[in-house]
Amino acid sequence: MVRRPYIILAGVVALVVAGAIGAGSYGWHAFNSAGPSRQETTVVIPKGIGIAGIADLLNKSGVIDNELIFKLGVKLSSEGKSLRAGEYAFPPGVSQHAAIRLMIEGKAVQHKITIPEGLTSAEIYDLLMATPILDGALANPPAEGTLLPETYQYLRGESRAALVDRMRRDMTTTLEKLWADRDKSIPLSKSDEAVVLASVVEKETGKPEERPRIAAVFYNRLKKNMPLQSDPTVIFAITNGKKRLDRSLTYDDLKTDSPYNTYLNLGLPPTPIANPGIEALKAVLHPIKSKDLYFVADGTGGHAFAETLDEHNKNVAQWRKVQKAATGN
Q1: Which of 41, 80, 268, 326 is the most buried (most CB within 10 A)?
Q2: Which residues does this entry assign to the site Important for catalytic activity (predicted)?
Q3: How far is 108 from 205, CA to CA, in rounded Å?
Protein backbone atom coordinates (compact mmCIF):
# COMPACT_ATOMS: atom_id res chain seq x y z
CA MET A 1 0.00 0.00 0.00
CA VAL A 2 1.42 3.40 -0.98
CA ARG A 3 1.14 6.15 1.63
CA ARG A 4 -0.21 9.39 0.41
CA PRO A 5 2.23 12.35 0.74
CA TYR A 6 -0.23 14.47 2.67
CA ILE A 7 -0.57 11.79 5.36
CA ILE A 8 3.20 11.70 5.84
CA LEU A 9 3.35 15.52 5.95
CA ALA A 10 0.55 15.65 8.50
CA GLY A 11 2.46 13.20 10.67
CA VAL A 12 5.62 15.28 10.49
CA VAL A 13 3.72 18.46 11.39
CA ALA A 14 2.10 16.68 14.29
CA LEU A 15 5.48 15.59 15.58
CA VAL A 16 6.89 19.12 15.25
CA VAL A 17 3.90 20.62 17.01
CA ALA A 18 4.07 18.03 19.77
CA GLY A 19 7.77 18.70 20.16
CA ALA A 20 7.22 22.44 20.31
CA ILE A 21 4.45 22.02 22.86
CA GLY A 22 6.65 19.75 24.90
CA ALA A 23 9.57 22.15 24.77
CA GLY A 24 7.34 25.07 25.61
CA SER A 25 5.82 23.17 28.51
CA TYR A 26 9.27 22.27 29.80
CA GLY A 27 10.50 25.85 29.42
CA TRP A 28 7.45 27.30 31.18
CA HIS A 29 7.81 24.80 33.99
CA ALA A 30 11.53 25.53 34.38
CA PHE A 31 10.82 29.27 34.26
CA ASN A 32 8.36 29.08 37.17
CA SER A 33 9.91 26.29 39.22
CA ALA A 34 12.24 26.74 42.18
CA GLY A 35 15.76 27.70 41.18
CA PRO A 36 19.05 26.08 42.25
CA SER A 37 19.99 28.42 45.11
CA ARG A 38 19.69 27.05 48.64
CA GLN A 39 20.32 30.30 50.50
CA GLU A 40 19.64 33.99 50.04
CA THR A 41 22.01 35.30 47.40
CA THR A 42 22.90 38.97 47.04
CA VAL A 43 23.87 40.09 43.55
CA VAL A 44 24.77 43.56 42.32
CA ILE A 45 23.39 44.23 38.83
CA PRO A 46 25.49 47.00 37.23
CA LYS A 47 24.00 49.65 34.97
CA GLY A 48 24.09 48.96 31.23
CA ILE A 49 24.91 45.27 31.55
CA GLY A 50 22.09 44.01 29.26
CA ILE A 51 19.90 40.90 29.53
CA ALA A 52 22.67 38.50 28.45
CA GLY A 53 25.03 39.99 31.02
CA ILE A 54 22.41 39.71 33.78
CA ALA A 55 21.72 36.08 32.83
CA ASP A 56 25.43 35.28 32.96
CA LEU A 57 25.84 37.04 36.32
CA LEU A 58 22.85 35.23 37.89
CA ASN A 59 24.04 31.91 36.50
CA LYS A 60 27.54 32.35 37.95
CA SER A 61 25.99 33.42 41.27
CA GLY A 62 23.90 30.24 41.41
CA VAL A 63 20.54 32.00 41.25
CA ILE A 64 19.59 30.44 37.89
CA ASP A 65 20.89 27.44 35.95
CA ASN A 66 19.54 28.06 32.45
CA GLU A 67 20.48 31.32 30.78
CA LEU A 68 18.49 30.63 27.60
CA ILE A 69 15.23 30.16 29.47
CA PHE A 70 15.97 33.29 31.50
CA LYS A 71 16.52 35.41 28.39
CA LEU A 72 13.40 34.05 26.70
CA GLY A 73 11.47 34.53 29.92
CA VAL A 74 12.45 38.20 30.08
CA LYS A 75 11.17 38.77 26.54
CA LEU A 76 7.89 36.95 27.16
CA SER A 77 7.06 38.14 30.68
CA SER A 78 8.55 41.62 31.11
CA GLU A 79 5.74 43.39 29.22
CA GLY A 80 8.31 45.73 27.71
CA LYS A 81 9.62 46.82 31.13
CA SER A 82 13.35 46.93 31.79
CA LEU A 83 15.26 45.10 34.49
CA ARG A 84 16.62 47.72 36.87
CA ALA A 85 20.22 47.87 37.99
CA GLY A 86 20.84 47.59 41.70
CA GLU A 87 21.69 45.28 44.57
CA TYR A 88 19.21 42.44 44.99
CA ALA A 89 18.79 39.78 47.68
CA PHE A 90 17.33 36.77 45.86
CA PRO A 91 15.49 34.37 48.24
CA PRO A 92 16.51 30.69 48.44
CA GLY A 93 15.09 28.71 45.52
CA VAL A 94 13.76 31.82 43.77
CA SER A 95 12.26 31.02 40.38
CA GLN A 96 13.48 32.78 37.27
CA HIS A 97 10.06 34.39 36.92
CA ALA A 98 10.17 35.74 40.49
CA ALA A 99 13.77 36.94 40.04
CA ILE A 100 12.76 38.88 36.95
CA ARG A 101 9.78 40.46 38.75
CA LEU A 102 12.10 41.51 41.58
CA MET A 103 14.33 43.39 39.14
CA ILE A 104 11.47 44.86 37.11
CA GLU A 105 9.93 46.28 40.28
CA GLY A 106 13.32 47.52 41.47
CA LYS A 107 13.03 45.93 44.92
CA ALA A 108 16.67 46.45 45.69
CA VAL A 109 18.38 45.93 49.05
CA GLN A 110 17.78 48.81 51.46
CA HIS A 111 20.75 49.80 53.62
CA LYS A 112 20.56 51.92 56.77
CA ILE A 113 22.78 54.61 58.21
CA THR A 114 22.16 56.19 61.61
CA ILE A 115 23.16 59.80 62.17
CA PRO A 116 23.42 60.25 65.96
CA GLU A 117 21.99 63.38 67.55
CA GLY A 118 24.51 66.08 68.30
CA LEU A 119 27.06 65.34 65.58
CA THR A 120 28.56 68.36 63.90
CA SER A 121 28.22 68.70 60.15
CA ALA A 122 31.91 67.90 59.75
CA GLU A 123 31.39 64.65 61.67
CA ILE A 124 28.39 63.74 59.51
CA TYR A 125 30.48 64.54 56.43
CA ASP A 126 33.19 62.15 57.64
CA LEU A 127 30.61 59.45 58.40
CA LEU A 128 29.13 59.66 54.91
CA MET A 129 32.53 59.70 53.22
CA ALA A 130 33.50 56.58 55.21
CA THR A 131 30.44 54.67 53.95
CA PRO A 132 31.89 52.82 50.93
CA ILE A 133 28.69 51.84 49.13
CA LEU A 134 27.56 55.46 48.79
CA ASP A 135 28.71 57.29 45.70
CA GLY A 136 30.14 60.70 44.90
CA ALA A 137 31.98 63.33 46.89
CA LEU A 138 30.67 66.15 49.05
CA ALA A 139 32.20 69.50 48.21
CA ASN A 140 32.00 70.88 51.76
CA PRO A 141 30.31 69.94 55.02
CA PRO A 142 26.72 71.27 55.07
CA ALA A 143 25.89 74.29 57.21
CA GLU A 144 25.75 73.49 60.93
CA GLY A 145 22.31 72.60 62.22
CA THR A 146 20.73 72.03 58.81
CA LEU A 147 20.67 68.21 58.92
CA LEU A 148 18.22 66.08 60.88
CA PRO A 149 19.86 63.24 62.84
CA GLU A 150 17.88 60.10 62.10
CA THR A 151 18.19 56.61 60.63
CA TYR A 152 18.07 56.82 56.84
CA GLN A 153 17.55 54.07 54.29
CA TYR A 154 19.50 54.18 51.06
CA LEU A 155 20.43 52.03 48.09
CA ARG A 156 23.91 50.89 47.11
CA GLY A 157 25.35 53.49 44.76
CA GLU A 158 23.09 56.32 45.97
CA SER A 159 24.91 59.62 45.93
CA ARG A 160 26.07 61.17 49.17
CA ALA A 161 24.78 64.53 47.98
CA ALA A 162 21.28 63.07 47.52
CA LEU A 163 21.34 61.66 51.05
CA VAL A 164 22.44 65.03 52.45
CA ASP A 165 19.58 66.68 50.56
CA ARG A 166 17.14 64.28 52.25
CA MET A 167 18.59 65.11 55.67
CA ARG A 168 18.28 68.81 54.92
CA ARG A 169 14.67 68.52 53.71
CA ASP A 170 13.75 66.44 56.75
CA MET A 171 15.19 69.08 59.09
CA THR A 172 13.31 71.85 57.30
CA THR A 173 10.00 69.94 57.36
CA THR A 174 10.39 68.81 60.97
CA LEU A 175 11.37 72.25 62.20
CA GLU A 176 8.38 73.88 60.48
CA LYS A 177 5.97 71.49 62.22
CA LEU A 178 7.59 71.78 65.64
CA TRP A 179 7.90 75.57 65.45
CA ALA A 180 4.20 75.94 64.56
CA ASP A 181 3.32 73.94 67.70
CA ARG A 182 5.77 75.70 70.04
CA ASP A 183 5.04 77.19 73.45
CA LYS A 184 4.43 80.79 72.39
CA SER A 185 5.85 82.12 75.65
CA ILE A 186 9.44 81.17 74.81
CA PRO A 187 11.62 84.22 74.06
CA LEU A 188 12.60 83.24 70.53
CA SER A 189 11.60 85.22 67.46
CA LYS A 190 12.36 82.66 64.74
CA SER A 191 12.86 78.95 64.26
CA ASP A 192 16.57 79.35 63.43
CA GLU A 193 17.15 80.45 67.03
CA ALA A 194 15.45 77.28 68.25
CA VAL A 195 17.97 75.19 66.30
CA VAL A 196 20.87 77.17 67.81
CA LEU A 197 19.65 76.66 71.38
CA ALA A 198 18.65 73.04 70.74
CA SER A 199 22.18 72.31 69.52
CA VAL A 200 23.58 73.62 72.81
CA VAL A 201 21.05 71.61 74.86
CA GLU A 202 21.87 68.52 72.79
CA LYS A 203 25.56 68.81 73.59
CA GLU A 204 24.97 69.52 77.30
CA THR A 205 23.25 66.27 78.22
CA GLY A 206 22.77 62.73 77.04
CA LYS A 207 19.72 62.26 79.26
CA PRO A 208 16.47 62.96 77.37
CA GLU A 209 14.55 63.79 80.56
CA GLU A 210 17.00 66.61 81.38
CA ARG A 211 16.68 68.48 78.11
CA PRO A 212 13.53 70.50 78.89
CA ARG A 213 15.03 71.50 82.26
CA ILE A 214 18.35 72.57 80.76
CA ALA A 215 16.44 74.55 78.12
CA ALA A 216 14.59 76.29 80.98
CA VAL A 217 17.91 77.20 82.64
CA PHE A 218 19.12 78.86 79.46
CA TYR A 219 15.85 80.74 78.98
CA ASN A 220 16.02 81.96 82.59
CA ARG A 221 19.56 83.20 82.05
CA LEU A 222 18.62 84.93 78.80
CA LYS A 223 15.74 86.74 80.52
CA LYS A 224 18.10 87.97 83.25
CA ASN A 225 20.72 89.02 80.68
CA MET A 226 23.16 86.47 82.06
CA PRO A 227 25.67 84.69 79.81
CA LEU A 228 24.75 81.09 79.04
CA GLN A 229 28.20 79.87 80.14
CA SER A 230 27.90 76.62 78.21
CA ASP A 231 31.06 74.52 77.94
CA PRO A 232 30.07 72.96 74.57
CA THR A 233 30.05 76.40 72.96
CA VAL A 234 33.65 76.92 74.11
CA ILE A 235 34.63 73.53 72.73
CA PHE A 236 33.08 74.50 69.39
CA ALA A 237 34.99 77.79 69.50
CA ILE A 238 38.22 75.82 69.89
CA THR A 239 37.56 73.02 67.38
CA ASN A 240 35.15 74.72 64.99
CA GLY A 241 33.25 71.45 65.07
CA LYS A 242 35.88 69.66 62.99
CA LYS A 243 37.15 67.32 65.70
CA ARG A 244 36.51 66.23 69.25
CA LEU A 245 38.40 67.89 72.08
CA ASP A 246 40.37 65.06 73.68
CA ARG A 247 40.91 66.84 77.00
CA SER A 248 39.02 68.75 79.66
CA LEU A 249 38.44 72.47 79.31
CA THR A 250 40.83 74.77 81.17
CA TYR A 251 40.27 78.22 82.65
CA ASP A 252 42.31 79.62 79.77
CA ASP A 253 39.90 77.93 77.32
CA LEU A 254 37.04 79.90 78.89
CA LYS A 255 38.84 83.07 77.77
CA THR A 256 38.92 81.98 74.11
CA ASP A 257 38.17 85.00 71.92
CA SER A 258 35.28 83.80 69.79
CA PRO A 259 31.65 84.80 69.19
CA TYR A 260 30.80 81.19 70.13
CA ASN A 261 32.23 81.56 73.62
CA THR A 262 29.12 82.03 75.78
CA TYR A 263 31.26 82.80 78.82
CA LEU A 264 32.37 86.02 77.16
CA ASN A 265 29.33 86.85 75.03
CA LEU A 266 25.69 87.38 75.97
CA GLY A 267 22.88 85.70 74.09
CA LEU A 268 22.93 82.73 71.78
CA PRO A 269 25.91 81.63 69.67
CA PRO A 270 25.81 83.00 66.12
CA THR A 271 24.97 79.59 64.61
CA PRO A 272 24.19 76.09 65.84
CA ILE A 273 27.16 74.17 67.25
CA ALA A 274 25.85 70.76 66.11
CA ASN A 275 22.85 69.11 64.48
CA PRO A 276 20.19 68.66 67.17
CA GLY A 277 17.70 65.81 67.15
CA ILE A 278 13.92 66.01 67.34
CA GLU A 279 13.79 65.59 71.13
CA ALA A 280 16.24 68.44 71.74
CA LEU A 281 14.17 70.67 69.47
CA LYS A 282 11.01 69.72 71.34
CA ALA A 283 12.72 70.45 74.66
CA VAL A 284 13.66 73.96 73.54
CA LEU A 285 10.20 74.62 72.13
CA HIS A 286 8.46 73.21 75.23
CA PRO A 287 10.71 73.85 78.26
CA ILE A 288 9.56 73.10 81.77
CA LYS A 289 8.69 75.92 84.16
CA SER A 290 11.47 76.43 86.67
CA LYS A 291 13.60 79.06 88.38
CA ASP A 292 16.86 77.18 87.89
CA LEU A 293 19.81 79.30 86.78
CA TYR A 294 22.65 76.79 87.16
CA PHE A 295 23.54 73.16 86.59
CA VAL A 296 26.67 71.07 86.93
CA ALA A 297 27.53 67.41 86.39
CA ASP A 298 26.59 65.19 89.33
CA GLY A 299 28.82 62.21 88.61
CA THR A 300 26.03 59.90 87.45
CA GLY A 301 25.83 61.10 83.86
CA GLY A 302 23.24 63.70 84.82
CA HIS A 303 23.26 67.14 86.37
CA ALA A 304 22.50 68.87 89.67
CA PHE A 305 20.37 71.99 89.23
CA ALA A 306 20.21 75.10 91.38
CA GLU A 307 18.27 78.34 91.62
CA THR A 308 20.94 80.28 93.53
CA LEU A 309 24.67 80.68 93.25
CA ASP A 310 25.15 79.37 96.80
CA GLU A 311 23.31 76.15 95.92
CA HIS A 312 25.31 75.89 92.72
CA ASN A 313 28.62 76.31 94.50
CA LYS A 314 27.68 73.45 96.84
CA ASN A 315 26.85 71.28 93.80
CA VAL A 316 30.17 72.22 92.20
CA ALA A 317 32.03 71.28 95.39
CA GLN A 318 30.26 67.93 95.42
CA TRP A 319 31.16 67.37 91.76
CA ARG A 320 34.81 68.08 92.52
CA LYS A 321 34.74 65.50 95.30
CA VAL A 322 33.39 62.96 92.83
CA GLN A 323 36.11 63.86 90.35
CA LYS A 324 38.81 63.59 93.02
CA ALA A 325 37.54 60.20 94.15
CA ALA A 326 37.51 58.97 90.57
CA THR A 327 41.01 60.20 89.69
CA GLY A 328 42.69 59.94 93.08
CA ASN A 329 43.97 63.51 92.75
Answers
A1: 268
A2: 204
A3: 39
| Residue 328 DSSP symbol | -
Q: Is 151 strand, coil or helix?
A: strand
Residue 234 φ/ψ, nearest 5 degrees: -70, -40
Q: What is the pLDDT of residues 82-134, one digit of tens each?
A: 999 999 999 999 999 999 999 999 999 999 999 999 999 999 999 999 999 99
Question: pTM for this structure?
Answer: 0.83
Cβ–Cβ under 8 Å, residues 148 and 171:
yes
Counted residue by residue, the chain has a size of 329
Angle at which helix 231-239 crosses helix 191-204, to 10 degrees, equals 100
Domains of the chain plus CATH, in order, are 36-108 (3.30.1490.480), 110-170 (no CATH), 184-327 (no CATH)
Neighbours of 243 (CB within 10 A): 12
Alpha helices in the chain (DSSP H): 5-32, 50-60, 67-77, 96-104, 121-129, 160-180, 191-204, 211-223, 231-239, 278-285, 309-327
Q: Over the stretch 189-218, which tens digit does the pLDDT of each residue have?
A: 999 999 999 999 999 998 999 999 999 999
151-155/41-45 β-pairing: unpaired
